[in-house]
Amino acid sequence: MGEVMLSVEGLGVTFRRGGDTVRAVRDVSFTVDRGESFGIVGESGSGKSTVLRAICGLSPTSAGVIAMGGQTLSAPRSAAFYRQVQMVFQDPYASLHPRHTVDRVLSEPLAIHGFDRREDRIEQALADVGLGEGFRFRYPHQLSGGQRQRVAIARALILEPRVLLLDEPTSALDASIQAEVLNLLDRLRAERGLTYLMVSHDLAVVSHMCERLIVMQHGRAVEQLSRDALAAHRAETDYTRSLLAASEGYSPAPV
Amino acid sequence: MTALLTVDDLRVTFPTRHGPSEVVRGVTFSLGRERLGIVGESGSGKSQTGRAILGLTPPPGRATAKVLDFDGIDLRAATPATWRSLRGARMSMVMQDPKFSLNPVMTVGRQLVEAVKFGDTGSRAEARDRALAMLEAVQIRDPERVFRAYPHELSGGMGQRAMIAMMLVTEPDLLIADEPTSALDVTVQVEVLRILDRLVADRGMGLIFISHDLRLVSSFCDRVLVMYAGRVVEELKASELRQAQHPYTRGLMNCLPQIEGGRRPLPTLERDAAWAK
């Protein structure tokens, strides 16, 4: 395979509150190659989103090393890091500021990172995600869920990053809109050679989008497998097999 | 099979600046002790249908129907006292989002005990035991911790399970589940559905399962209503969903990604203005 873009080695994240200690992520390791799309699948509370947040510097890491392009990341992350790595969150209803127009949402990262030609970049970013000029001065409440998620993707892409961290980008969307957003993400990756790290609970979505994936349970990575292995239902652990069985739909007898 | 619930020509209207807007337009069905699925995308009126049955159409919206009958009770003329005796005890609803339907300043345990004690005269300790048993029944690994926790301390899936526990603890006759498992993982989803399935089979509960997930509904429910723009565009047996005739139903089926993969780009849904007529 190609050059390693992102590597995570022995990552651990522990949260403490009161007497409760939650070890959200324990000893998770994987590498993502340049231009690859890598998936993390798991149930809620398995730590899959926390891995993404730890990479972004949004969660404290208690163990392990995260490196990008061979360089260990500093904490807090540098501005240069955020130009290369951007995140798209799960819920487009919560991740866009309700009182900022699309224009303001898109200009803020440009201002923070000192980009030039802001007008052109905003127009281009909107066109790239399939929204016309007419959407530029709207507020989030004037957009549908699919349109909001397109704005969130445009906001991530406007800094021309090389890596996108996608945290359940379509789970809040209708099936037909999900298909459109997945097609959009597919096209953008092909056009720009982006690297994706995608978290989802939906095996079918991850299998559609990602070449390789890890399955997480209780904070640990229990299995790594390729898309082909997943498609052929060649899972090695019971947990992955139960995920596969469950995603086929409802079955009355215990699996 | 005698009908538990009969709905004829249900309409829900909201006044807007441009005149009244009808979001549910003439929905008719009857429900026995079975699992009925209502499928549609956001804005299709499926949730408003569920809410109208419970008399929960948010004002200034208005729900009207030719017949709205629950086990011999005419719900159109129900007084607030009648509603109080029905809601929670005999018909209840699992909402879509636990973040908005649980009380943020009460622990999950207190809310559950409150639901148990509603219409039940047992002691506090009994109520607590029943609440804990119900939490365990919805596959919460650490019921004691969840019992003590506030809703914000739980993940979405946990919160939804707590919510389902709360609605099932009174053992209602009719459960309207509005996207009850959308926030859950596939393995938990199956567990929760088995709990619902058991209640339908053992206790003869009627279940209206509102969902956007065709694949899930077709494998879980007995019958499916497909809604588009406030109307039922197709009604079919769940097992015959693959032979669906309406282009909307077929489009919804096709745009789902498959684990087996292959189709790229995914087919998207081309909407036809005539469907909404």
TrEMBL record, chain B:
Just give the chief location class.
Answer: membrane
Q: Which CDD domains match?
A: ABC_NikE_OppD_transporters
Membrane topology category: Peripheral membrane protein
A Pfam family it matches: ABC_tran
Print the keywords alphabetically.
ATP-binding, Cell membrane, Membrane, Nucleotide-binding, Transport
Give the UniProt subcellular location, in the record's own words.
Cell inner membrane
Stretches assigned to the ABC transporter domain: 5-254
Instruction: Check the record and name the InterPro entries matching this protein.
Output: AAA+_ATPase, ABC_Ni/Peptide_Import, ABC_transporter-like_ATP-bd, P-loop_NTPase
GO terms, molecular function: ATP binding
> What family does the database annotate?
Belongs to the ABC transporter superfamily.
- Indicate what this protein is called per its UniProt record: ABC transporter ATP-binding protein
> Origin organism of this chain?
Albidovulum marisflavi
